[in-house]
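Lecture 7 notes: from sequence to structure.
We start with the chain below.
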Amino acid sequence: MKRKSGGKDFCGFALPGMFCFFAVVIIPFLYGVYLTLTDWNGVSSVKNFVWFDNFASVLKDTQFWSSLLLTFKYVIFVVIIVNVLAFGIAYLLTRGIKGQNFFRAGFFTPNLIGGLVLGYIWQFVFSRVFVGVGEATGWSLFESSWLSDPSLAFAALVLVSVWQLSGYMILIYVAGFMGLNQDVMAASIDGATGWVKLKSIILPLMMSSITICLFLTLSRAFMVYDVNLSLTAGAPYGTTEMAAMHVYEKAFTSRQFGVGQAEALILFVIVAIISGIQVYITKRQEVEA
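Predicted structure tokens for the same chain:
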């Protein structure tokens, strides 16, 4: 008779992962919630309880709310542009065009570059290459570095983020398109062509991929820090400081860990609510192929 070892198998496979999850995610999260109730400065061995004073300070921190508003604006641009661009390119790269595998690899490459390195590379592009183009052509758009103008610096952040994130989303959409029945993709009967075909056939069947891509781009855009730090560092004059960077500066530069953790918790709750609503709405639109 075979010996049942379900419990041992579960412990052997699940417990290490659960332990890592609790050690890396749950425990630090709970400790962060605890810090929101203290006046800890990151150095002192004493943590005095101030209860909800830190949240009161957050409500008065106009810079945090300005950075959060800017983050919302950034998220809207990035999520829409990334998903529309990735969906369109993925559709083209599953139509059997010549060299489509090469193009898939090419579009994915920017995602392999770390955010910090990516920011420094594009900082050189905006400050040197674009300016050189402006001097050679006389185009006013490139006469000075984009990073020195508040509106253009924001556009630069969006451009770099779209360039980085689109490749990964393209692969997800490509996988979604390849999973569709080819008869469905080739449907042209009953007027199923052009926009009608896209709206009534392709989009409903691609909703599972759209759900994943929207969730990933939302969470990544809201929590952007590395590209923000290396590309603009909040310049000029703090006009491109996103919420995550403001939280970091508040906690580690200003040594107000309690307030910084309170702001981080508020940001987490906002992202969780928005992402949850997005997943709920898009999951309801999914249909079986």
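Points to note: The first helix runs from residue 6 to 35. The chain is about 70% helix and 0% strand.
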